[in-house]
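The following record pairs a protein chain with its ligand, flavin mononucleotide.
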Amino acid sequence: MDDIPLSPAAQELLFLEARSANTFTDTPVTDEQLHAIWDLLKWAPTSGNTNPLRILYLRSPESRERAMAHLAEGNRPKTRTAPMTALLAADLDFHEFVPQLFPARAEQAEAYAKMEGRAEMAKFNATLQAGYFIIAVRAIGLAAGPMSGFDYPAMDAEFFPDGRYASVLLVNFGEPGPDAWFPRLPRLDYGQAVTEI
Ligand SMILES: Cc1cc2nc3c(=O)[nH]c(=O)nc-3n(C[C@H](O)[C@H](O)[C@H](O)COP(=O)(O)O)c2cc1C
């Protein structure tokens, strides 16, 4: 695998050694780092270049506390002590940005406006972008702890009461703390997950 264009060090950082962090130090995440994450992840591919992901950073202790009641109990201490928490959400009205994002096919905005599956399309593509978010966090040298263990309708009612946005994933991130990693869990073998026809 020496011929993979990504350097071995980068492969380790992004994939082979990358783990989900359960604890973090209190080293703050800087504005510069937040922008660096965006400047990488924004290049993720999305259907029709629709870019439906929206990010709500729960930066203040007060905003973090508003999320607590909606998290599974085991996820609360991890989130309370993380230096930064991102609530990743899908913009269900992403079509408003189509003229900016795909000017040559601006008329698609009207088609999406009437499309029955628009919310599913938004969530599907925002979830794909959420995967890129995790990789971007790792790429700038921080550790991410993704979480779906929360009450989605309650979280949406708390932070997105007008119904325009739907949460897809919460991600804590920062410098990993002591005992950040659970023992490594196995993965499926190639033959278990892959079929060739
Ligand atoms: C979509 C998603 C949801 C997850 N939800 C939680 C969660 O609610 N709480 C938690 O502690 N870890 C959560 N995790 C972390 C996984 O448990 C972890 O990625 C998996 O066990 C593999 O561990 P590793 O990433 O360290 O290899 C989630 C990960 C993903 C991708």
